[in-house]
Amino acid sequence: MSEYLHAALSLAADGLPVLPLRKGKVPFGNCPACAKNACGGRPNMKTPGPCTCLHPCHGWAAATTDPGVINSPAWWRAWRDAAVVAYHPGGAGLTVVDLDNAEAITWAHASLPATRIVRTTRGEHWLYLGVMQSANAVRPGVDVKSTMAYARWLGTGTGAMTALPDAVRALAVKEPSTVRPAPHAITVSARAGGGECRHRTPAYLDRGIAMAEQRITEAREAVHATVYRTFLAVLSTHGRCGCLTEAHIARLFTAAQAKGESARHCTDAWTNAMTRLGL
Question: Biggest alpha carbon distance in the chain?
Fold first, then answer.
């Protein structure tokens, strides 16, 4: 039996939803039936557990405590090639404050209540009892992993685990004043043929931006995908004529961040959409 499979079964028996990670500390890719989330996720990756294909698909959402699934042929092949055992903190009622360097650890000792500490390769995981929204880069070198996230299993750690404090919950709260426009200004070629661009009429451009904001705001699931698709739609219509300004981009980023997206994800989604369209 693989050492990773043995560890996973032991952790699952203790109520910790587990999943294998491959080299690079990333989840295994979806199986062909689930490629590009064609199966709809589990459902749409809102809750942990494998989809009906029973492969370790959909990243954190594949985490399970079911020994039959963990020890199944499809999962056994993943354990054979695994490099890390991971778990879904939120599924176990936990929150992990991931401290990635010495400066982050110093900040935690000065700012957060003492709790169980697990040593990592570069820093520490501080484990608290309680569940919250996950958030990346809440401070330099600090991520919060709970719901819809996974963390590496690195041992039981030391110290008594304490209840999730308000100081940690506050890390995921986005202050309205911190919202910033896109750090990369959009640079596109002028409209071929010259002349005034029809998109510069307020009724056309403003209506398009307002509809994009509404689409993001009304998203109830798959927010990441909705933001990307909305950015793609805006750029496909307005990206080649020079209409879009920093103010327009800022409105879209603000709508996305209000739905919980990070500034980094907004920038990545915008850049990826531009790349796809050849802008």
Answer: 71
**Cβ distance 105 to 126 under 8 Å?**
no
Q: In the numeric block, which tokens belong to residue 89?
A: 């903190």
Question: What does the alpha-carbon distance between residue 93 and residue 166 come to, in Å, rounded to a whole number?
Answer: 16
61 three-class SS:
helix
pLDDT in tens, 225-251: 888 888 888 888 877 776 777 778 888
Residue type, 190: A
Q: Which residue has the higher pLDDT, 24 or 96?
A: 96
CA distance 30 to 79: 15
Residue 90's contacts (CB-CB under 8 Å, 6 or more residues apart) are 48, 131, 134, 146, 147, 148, 149
* Higher-scoring residue by pLDDT: 64, 257: 64
Listed as own residue / partner, the contacts of 254-260 with beta carbons closer than 8 Å and 24 or more positions apart are 254/179, 255/212, 255/213, 255/216, 255/217, 256/216, 256/223, 256/227, 257/174, 257/179, 258/174, 258/217, 259/216, 259/217, 259/219, 259/223, 259/227, 260/133, 260/174, 260/223
pLDDT of residue 197: 58
DSSP string, 170-236: GGGPPPGGG----SS----PPPTT-S--GGGSHHHHHHHHHHHHHHHHT--S-HHHHHHHHHHHHHH
Q: Is 274 or 6 the better-scoring residue by pLDDT? A: 6
The DSSP secondary-structure symbol of 50 reads -
In this predicted structure, the answer to whether residue 36 has a pLDDT above a threshold of 90 is: no
Q: Provide the token pair at 45.
A: 């990756």
- Residue 154 near residue 126 (C-beta atoms within 8 A): no
